[in-house]
Amino acid sequence: MTLPTNELTKTEASQGGFPPAGGVAAMAQSIHDKQHNLESVVNEVTTKSESELTKEDASKVMSAESRAMDGIRPPKGSTSAHVQSVADHNAQAQAQVQPQTEGQEQAKQE
């Protein structure tokens, strides 16, 4: 049987006034907060189109996903891995466009 975080807190508090640090309620709240943070970061990043995703976005998602997994690096196929792949592709595409654009600007100046 699983209890919502607030019920765990009430149960533990009734045993001594306040829920103990490191108790079940504190752990449940921590897990909830980490998952909520991950959800918020993913929602923020996914409001962008894939062509707008940056390495900074990928870093935010990986950090939040890692925290939600108690510090474990997210595995292949995870949300952060996908965002990282798209961001790498975008960075490569941007790097290829910049030299062409710079060359065109130099030709115009000559």
From TrEMBL:
InterPro entries: LEA_SMP_dom. Residues 51-92 form the SMP domain. Residues 1-14, 91-104 have a biased composition (Polar residues). Residues 47-59 have a biased composition (Basic and acidic residues). It comes from the Eukaryota. Residues 1-24, 45-110 are annotated as: Disordered. It comes from Coniochaeta hoffmannii. This is SMP domain-containing protein.
